[in-house]
Amino acid sequence: MAELRLEELNASNIVAANTLTLKPGQEQFIAPVSYSAAAAVNNPATAWQRVVIDGDEVVGFIMGNFDPEAEHEEFRAILWRINVDANDQGRGIGTFAVHSLADEARSRGLSRIYVIWEPGELGPEAFFLRTGFAPVGETQYGETIGALDL
Q1: For residues 105 and 38, what is the distance between their CA atoms, to the nearest angstrom?
Q2: Residue 124 in contact with residue 29, Cβ under 8 Å?
Q3: Count of domains in the chain?
Q4: Which of 19, 29, 59, 87 to pair with 127, CA 20 to 30 A apart?
Q5: Mean pLDDT for the chain overall
Q6: Using H for helix, E for strand and C for coil, what is the string for the chain?
Q7: How far apart are alpha carbons 98 and 78 in whole angstroms?
Q8: pLDDT at 112
Q9: 103: domain CATH number?
Q10: Nearest in space to 115 (alpha carbons), one of 96, 88, 134
Q11: Domain containing 94: what range?
């Protein structure tokens, strides 16, 4: 594995980001990168979208949002989406991406980031717990709200 690095999501890497593959069963928990790109169009001042590059290959994607004016605390600094290519899962790429989002939050003077996940056997809960998120609540739809103290 070459040294991982981040690049902003842009026209030259969005096709590669959109072709990230998933392991069987993960598709019910992960929205396509194109959904994230569309969401950023509506929130360009608050969206933080990056691809993870290994060598010169896109191997992951992460989208955070930083909105100090959000009504609910968990939406002021949140990890909205994270995708790691099926063939590259288990290599630390997702952890690198989460730590990068945490570094960005710290640079903005924040002390906590949030994530919301849907419970399920093939869902992302184990990953979020391994990266340091702890359950702090539940949405009205039964999703878990997790927080990572920085």
Answers
A1: 22
A2: yes
A3: 1
A4: 19
A5: 89
A6: CCCEEEEECCCCCHHHHHCCCCCCCHHHCCCCHHHHHHHHHHCCCCEEEEEEEECCEEEEEEEEEECCCCCCHHHCEEEEEEEECHHHCCCCHHHHHHHHHHHHHHHCCCCEEEEEECCCCCCCHHHHHHCCCEEEEECCCCCEEEEEEC
A7: 11
A8: 98
A9: 3.40.630.30
A10: 134
A11: 4-109
Q: For the chain, how many residues are written?
A: 150
Residue 83 lies in a domain: yes
Is there a domain that residue 68 lies in?
Answer: yes
pLDDT band at 91 (very low <50, low <70, confident <90, very high): very high
- Determine contact, residues 6/58, Cβ cutoff 8 Å: no
Note the pLDDT tens digit of each residue in 92-134.
999 999 999 999 999 999 999 999 999 888 889 999 999 999 9
Give the HSE-up count for residue 80: Cα atoms under 13 Å, Cβ half-sphere.
23
Burial environment of residue 105 by CB neighbours within 10 A (0 to 12, 13 to 18, 19 or more) = buried
Is residue 144 domain-resident? no
Residues 62 and 82: beta-carbon distance below 8 Å = yes
Biggest CA pair distance of the chain: 42
Q: Would residue 28 count as lying in a domain?
A: yes
